Amino acid sequence: MPTLDASDARILLALIHDPRQTVVAMAARLGLSRNTVQARMAALEKHHAFLPFDHRISAEPLGYPLTAFIFVHVQQQKLGALALSLAAIPEVLEAHGLSGRADILVRVVSTGAEDLFRINGKILACDGVERTETSLAMNQLVPFRMTPLLQRTFEK
After folding, report:
1. At a CB cut-off of 8 Å and minimum separation 6, what does 102 contact?
2. Count of alpha carbons within 13 Å of 79, Cβ hemisphere only?
3. Residues near 112 by Cβ (< 8 Å), separated by ≥ 6?
4. Nearest-angstrom CA–CA distance, 27 and 68
5. C-alpha distances in angstroms, 112 versus 4, 24, 108, 116?
6. Which of 53, 106, 137, 148 could bond 70 through an S-S bridge, CB–CB 3.0 to 4.6 Å?
């Protein structure tokens, strides 16, 4: 992907600010032509600048008030198949391969301590998992964000 320029950053910031706005409204707000905005958005999409579109939904109103991070230690040769097994567990929100002491970091949600124990057991039962270490999320100190990076790009 080519490096973003200030106009690309402005478009992405506008999308963060109001993801439902039309291309016409965004173009007017940014002082760009509709064709320019549309072409740049198509190029951004082509270069995978956009992650899959999901509204960010809290798990808490769905009955999952507890968030935990599970560090998973695995047999390396079974890592690929393990990703599919983790994806089959509905309470697994995301999983990342790591360098360092653990091999995978899994973010899960649960209805409580007993449910977390059950989920951890499902992860431990996956082929290739050697052991896990679980940490409860006590508070979200910095939520997911892209605005500061885009603003820095815009300032260049």
Report:
1. 71, 72, 73, 133
2. 13
3. 65, 66
4. 41
5. 43, 46, 11, 6
6. 106
**Tokens (6 digits) for 52:** 């899959």
User: What is the Cα–Cα distance from 21 to 28, expressed in whole angstroms?
Assistant: 11
State the pLDDT at residue 113. Answer: 97
Q: How does pLDDT run across 110-151, given as a tens digit for each residue?
A: 999 999 999 999 999 999 999 999 999 999 999 889 899 888
Task: Sort strands 92-97 and 104-110 into parallel, antiparallel or unpaired.
Answer: antiparallel
* DSSP tag of 131: E
Q: What is the band of 2 on the pLDDT scale with cuts at 50, 70, 90?
A: low
Which amino acid makes up residue 153? T
Check residue 88 and report its DSSP letter.
T
pLDDT tens sequence across 37-73: 999 999 999 988 888 777 778 999 999 999 999 999 9
Element at 70 (helix H, strand E): strand 66-74
**66-74 vs 92-97, strand pairing mode:** unpaired
Dig out the tokens for 88 from the structure: 């089959």
pLDDT of 1 reads 56
Contacts of residue 11, Cβ cutoff 8 Å, sequence gap at least 6: 26, 30, 32, 37, 40, 41, 44
